[in-house]
């Protein structure tokens, strides 16, 4: 397919290098464009033509011993990137997903949270009389439509999720729906509850199952008044006063959103400073702009982190549990290949090869992203 160069503002011979939270350009529906010697831009069909697998015969079909060259368990940012890279290298690839394509980043993490932060930023601008006057603008009391804000975040996530799905389908990646479980070396079963499981084999397997919100013992999450970040991103209601348990980046992002929308926020942190692990000066600033307040209904028992003695009781409208994330590896079937997790994380070496309980490498098995605990960030996956 060719298009005139005058329709595009770029004429570089190198592909566009666009990334967001580790997402490849395909997440935004952007194709790879290159310039030919005739001066016309060509839409690359790399990966769409019939391929010969790196481990197959001349007819492009997988060997009889394997259904695929590569199976990826989990279609988040890491799994999507691995799948696209694999087909670019000519591998017959399948990806197993038990929920929705896009994983945490697209559906319950960076994409919707940044959409909400964009709204909170605009609200603060509109609420700043000094800033508006400096621009020569007069704005009456700024307001918002809660459902409209929630739809804004959801629509962005939905669009990127659709682009991720379409990009894999266009390149010939098989998307297998169901929860994946390793049942033996180079063998995975997948399926939905109530349906017969399917078993597939592959020369190599990549675990990319990501993570879920971590909820400490003693906290009962009901999804309404006691919530995690997964629930908060839906913005089903904006409480008058919310206690945020945990003051890492997740808690601080939501404090920005809630306060911009009119909520009062109290942080509850076990350590002696906000943003533990971050620069102390940033922590001091966060303490100054995040005041603690008295309030109402959800009961929060506060104890001393060291002595465990009861210190106080808070009654608030809602509580957000933002105490970090835990690897989503339960039920993965690692015991079938003699792999023991460490606090839920899959042990790997520097090349992401999985290590078994005896300290040996498990042949043809890899683990990337949050599930291995190396660095729980989307761009690292």
TrEMBL record:
Residues 52-61 have a biased composition (Polar residues). One of its GO terms (biological process) is 2-oxoglutarate metabolic process. Its cofactor is FAD. GO terms for cellular component: mitochondrion; oxoglutarate dehydrogenase complex. It holds the Pfam family Pyr_redox_2. The keyword Disulfide bond applies. This is FAD/NAD(P)-binding domain-containing protein. Belongs to the class-I pyridine nucleotide-disulfide oxidoreductase family. InterPro entries: Class-I_Pyr_Nuc-Dis_Oxidored (IPR050151), FAD/NAD-bd_sf (IPR036188), FAD/NAD-binding_dom (IPR023753), Pyr_OxRdtase_I_AS (IPR012999). GO terms for molecular function: dihydrolipoyl dehydrogenase (NADH) activity; flavin adenine dinucleotide binding. Residues 41-61 are annotated as: Disordered. Residues 68-381 form the FAD/NAD(P)-binding domain. Keywords: Disulfide bond, FAD, Flavoprotein, Oxidoreductase, Redox-active center.
